[in-house]
Write a structure and sequence with these properties.
The protein is mainly alpha-helical and 134 residues long. 38% of the residues lie in helices and 4% in strands. The protein has a two-stranded parallel sheet. The mean pLDDT is 86.
């Protein structure tokens, strides 16, 4: 969110200073470590931090974390909603990437629900049963 307003000079200057060091980095940098330390200090329940450079990375990491934390496999997704470009989110839509190359195993543990329909979410969670990860 934009907390300091649009075109805040201090923010713009900090961005320009940082951008020469790298704009989209996959590995941890000194600044990422510093920010992670701040976040784990100010967020009482935060034991650690993880940063992603794009939405696909973020959703893939979130799935991995949910499964690791719960020991469960099933993840919810809303069909026709964008969750990233990883194989687990693909369903062979003609409007997007086709199903060629996407194995059935990639989505074997995905439960679908209708976006913005809480009853559909509850039904998908119930259907997932004891294997619901997130």
């Amino acid at each position: 969110p934009i907390l300091l307003g649009h075109k805040n000079k201090a923010v713009e200057d900090a961005v320009q200073k940082q951008i020469v060091k790298g704009g989209c980095l996959a590995g941890p940098t000194e600044k990422m470590v510093e920010l992670a330390e701040v976040l784990t200090t100010v967020i009482p329940f935060g034991d650690w931090s993880y940063f992603a450079k794009n939405g696909t990375d973020a959703t893939t990491i979130a799935v991995r974390m949910a499964r690791a934390h719960t020991g469960k496999r099933i993840i919810l997704r809303a069909p026709s909603s964008y969750h990233g470009s990883a194989e687990i989110w693909k369903e062979g839509s003609e409007r997007r990437l086709r199903k060629e190359g996407v194995l059935p195993e990639h989505s074997a543990f995905i439960a679908k629900y209708t976006f913005n329909d809480i009853e559909s979410v509850a039904s998908a969670v119930e259907e997932a049963g004891d294997d619901f990860a997130g």
